[in-house]
């Protein structure tokens, strides 16, 4: 956003509560890597420039990419400044009450994403005190956990990859499998992301998605870029010793109780992956592409009729909660949120003049929450901000001198 505003000559300030790129540096595990190919990293003015476009950047490479981007144009970032409250200003614009004082701005772009508060269920408090618990954002490596079995709860991208990380390290892993979909890494000679890119899936507006705006609440497909990229096949993990269960429902009397939905969840994930292959097959046939034929997936393990739905909580030494995050906009005192606390908007423009959001999943397209599509969203918003900024200046909108800084636009991210 700052890059786009800078190009348009819009005065602005970027407020960052920690440091540029800190989430990538401080809230990811050691073996974390991208799950989309490096060539999809298309920040405005800063496309991927390495020598492995079909590879997957590791955590430190991602940090270097983001921080190198910032250094390339020296954005007006104020690090170590947290926004404690954002309110409408008398007479127009906004007041940002920060740890460094008050800032006034004609317009605001909230670019904090939607993953703010780690989710841990209330029944976590019923686990034995000896069980070590942590959220995925605090997981770093298997050695961090005490000896003993590990229960990983959730099979979105984080849960599936952390379970694999522990499994490859030789830990005994119990995995509570949810309804998250999966996707194949490669099919018919190419990365599936490349096929979906050609099919225009990353450019599809949310309004054209079969689920409409409900797509914004969906869970990402699990796959990995680890060791050059591969499928994550939970059935293969089970075949090789990982212990799978259905969704974790709670803890009763020291017993972990799981839903009897493991088979359904595994089958549903497979159907999503195979349906993507159907799309690819039709695209190849329609375009007359010469691509190698590949056999379809055959399940390598299936739960038996007596598969367990309980586990003695004392049998595990650690639990890693991988069930996501909740958005927390409690600091924003602007009436733009629906009953779920989600900001209502069209392509990041809300119904409240001068208040915008950026970087949310499916903000406009599937690429919106990714390095591949953020440039398009930022360009669209920058045009809107620049247009309003010019109109505001023409009408004599007052810019109050603030304790920290005053600017026509402020980006919080």
From TrEMBL:
Pfam families membership: Pyr_redox_3
Gene Ontology MF annotations: flavin adenine dinucleotide binding; monooxygenase activity
The organism of origin for this protein: Goekera deserti
Entries under Gene3D superfamilies matching the protein: FAD/NAD(P)-binding domain
The protein's name in its UniProt record: MSMEG_0569 family flavin-dependent oxidoreductase
Transit peptide as UniProt keyword: no
Top-rank taxon: Bacteria
Membrane-spanning residues: none
InterPro entries: Auxin_biosynth/cation_transpt (IPR050982), CHP04046_FMN-dependent (IPR024000), FAD/NAD-bd_sf (IPR036188)
PANTHER family: FLAVIN-BINDING MONOOXYGENASE-LIKE PROTEIN (AFU_ORTHOLOGUE AFUA_4G09220), FLAVIN-CONTAINING MONOOXYGENASE
Keywords for this protein: Oxidoreductase
